[in-house]
C-alpha cells in the first residue's frame, strides 16, 4: 500500500511541477515578444511609442511649433538625442528622401571620378529628371549632383545601374538600412518613386541622414546651392549644352546655417524632408513625412526653436548607432536623472528573460513543492 501511495504521490508531484514548468517556459517567449514589439519597445527608446507630439518640456520652455506632417522628428545630430517627435516609427512612403540612402550606399562603392555611360533606360524613368543625355558618359560625382541637387531620377537609375544593376543596388541599400537599425525602411526603388512595399519613417530618415552626413562627399553635394551641369552628345550626334542646376532643397536657400539634406514629393507620399542646420556649434536634424506643405517655413520654425531651447529640453529617446539593435539599446533616461529601477512585473526581468516575480514564483513554488514532497517521502519511508 505504501508503494502505491508513493507512486500516486510521485505522479501528482510530476504533474504539479510540469504545470509550474509550463508557466516558467511559456513566459520567456511572452516576455521576449513584449521586449521586441516595436509598438511598445521601439528602436530609440520606449517614449517614442507615445501618441501625439512627444516632448519633455522643462519649466519656462515653450512648446515646439506645430509641424504639418503626419510624422516628424527633431534630434541633435552630434549626440543623437531626440528632442521632439510625432509618430516617429510610423511607416510612410519616403519619395526622394530615399535618394539619401542611395547616396549613402553608393558613395563608398563608386569612385567619384569614374564614368558611367547613360542609356535610354536611365532617362525613360518616371518623375523628375536632371537632364542627362543617353550615349554620354558622366562622372559618378556629376551624377551624384544630379541626383541630390536636382533630385534626378534619371541620375539615380544611372548610378544604380553603374553599381552592377538596380537589383544589386537595392540589396545593398536594404543591407545599409539594416546595419543602421533602420528597421522601418524597405527600399524598392533607388530614386524613391512609389513602389508597393517601399517604406521608411521619420526615425529611420534621421538615422539615414545622420549617417550620410558623416560622408564628406555627401556633405559637399547636399550643401551646394548651384552647379553647372555638363551637356553631352546624344546618340544621334547632337551636342547638348551645359546648364545650371539649383538645389531643390528650399531650406538651404532661405535659412541661415542650413547644411542640407534632401526633400521629396510624390502625390501618394506628399512632401518629405530630411534637413540639417548648424549654428553656434550646435547641429540639429529634422525629418518629416507625409506633409501637405512644400514650403520651408515649418522646418525653419522648428529649427529656430531647437537653437533657442534645445539645450533645456530633456531627450525623449536617441538615434541608435550603426550595428545596435532595439534589444541591446538601453532606454534613454531623462538628462541629469539616473535610470529608475524597474518596479513593475513587466519592467523587471530575470536572467531567463522572465519577469522577475514570475521567475521567483516559479523557483520558490517548485522548491516548496519539492521540499514538501521530500519531507512527505521521508515520513512515508519511515512509516
Could you characterize the architecture of this molecule?
By secondary structure, the chain is of the alpha+beta class. The chain folds into 2 domains: 2-37 and 352-382; 53-318, Beta-lactamase. 38% of the residues lie in helices and 17% in strands. The chain has 11 helices and 13 strands. It has helices at 2-36, 98-106, 120-123, 140-148, 153-162, 166-180, 202-212, 216-222, 250-254, 297-309, 356-382, and strands at 53-55, 71-76, 81-86, 115-117, 137-139, 226-229, 232-233, 239-240, 243-246, 258-266, 270-279, 282-291, 317-318. The strands form 4 sheets. Strands 1, 2, 3, 10, 11, 12 and 13 form a 7-stranded antiparallel sheet that branches. Strands 4-5 form a two-stranded antiparallel ribbon. Helix 2 packs parallel to helix 7 (202-212). The longest helix is centred in the N-terminal third of the chain and has 35 residues, at 2-36. The N and C termini lie close together (11 Å). The model is unreliable at 1-35 and 326-383 (pLDDT under 50).
Amino acid at each position: 500500500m505504501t508503494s502505491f501511495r508513493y507512486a500516486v504521490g510521485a505522479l501528482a508531484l510530476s504533474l504539479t511541477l510540469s504545470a509550474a514548468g509550463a508557466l516558467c517556459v511559456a513566459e520567456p517567449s511572452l516576455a521576449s515578444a513584449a521586449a521586441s514589439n516595436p509598438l511598445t519597445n521601439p528602436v530609440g527608446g520606449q517614449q517614442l511609442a507615445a501618441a501625439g507630439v512627444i516632448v519633455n518640456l522643462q519649466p519656462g520652455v515653450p512648446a515646439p511649433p506645430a509641424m504639418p506632417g503626419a510624422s516628424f522628428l527633431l534630434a541633435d545630430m552630434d549626440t543623437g538625442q531626440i528632442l521632439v517627435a510625432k509618430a516617429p516609427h510610423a511607416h510612410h512612403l519616403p519619395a526622394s528622401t530615399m535618394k539619401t540612402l542611395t547616396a549613402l550606399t553608393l558613395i563608398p562603392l563608386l569612385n567619384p571620378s569614374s564614368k558611367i555611360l547613360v542609356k535610354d533606360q536611365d532617362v525613360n524613368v518616371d518623375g523628375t529628371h536632371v537632364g542627362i543625355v543617353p550615349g554620354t558618359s558622366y562622372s559618378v560625382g556629376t551624377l551624384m549632383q544630379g541626383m541630390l541637387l536636382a533630385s534626378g531620377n534619371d541620375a539615380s537609375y544611372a548610378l544604380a545601374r553603374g553599381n552592377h544593376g538596380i537589383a544589386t543596388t537595392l540589396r545593398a541599400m536594404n543591407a545599409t538600412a539594416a546595419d543602421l537599425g533602420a528597421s522601418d525602411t524597405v527600399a524598392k526603388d533607388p530614386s524613391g518613386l512609389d513602389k508597393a512595399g517601399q517604406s521608411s519613417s521619420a526615425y529611420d530618415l534621421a538615422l539615414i541622414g545622420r549617417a550620410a552626413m558623416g560622408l564628406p562627399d555627401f556633405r559637399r553635394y547636399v550643401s551646394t546651392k548651384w552647379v553647372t551641369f555638363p551637356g553631352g552628345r546624344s546618340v544621334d550626334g547632337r551636342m547638348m549644352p551645359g546648364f545650371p542646376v539649383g538645389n531643390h532643397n528650399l531650406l538651404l536657400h532661405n535659412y541661415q546655417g542650413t547644411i542640407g539634406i534632401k526633400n521629396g514629393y510624390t502625390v501618394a507620399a506628399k512632401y518629405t524632408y530630411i534637413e540639417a542646420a548648424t549654428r553656434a556649434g550646435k547641429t540639429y536634424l529634422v525629418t518629416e513625412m507625409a506633409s501637405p506643405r512644400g514650403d520651408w517655413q515649418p522646418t525653419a520654425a522648428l529649427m529656430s526653436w531647437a537653437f533657442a531651447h534645445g539645450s533645456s529640453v530633456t531627450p525623449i529617446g536617441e538615434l541608435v548607432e550603426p550595428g545596435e539593435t532595439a534589444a541591446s539599446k538601453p532606454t534613454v533616461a531623462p538628462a541629469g536623472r539616473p535610470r529608475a529601477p524597474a518596479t513593475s512585473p513587466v519592467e523587471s526581468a530575470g536572467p531567463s528573460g522572465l519577469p522577475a516575480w514570475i521567475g521567483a514564483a516559479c523557483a520558490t513554488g517548485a522548491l516548496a513543492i519539492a521540499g514538501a514532497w521530500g519531507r512527505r517521502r521521508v515520513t512515508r519511508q519511515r512509516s
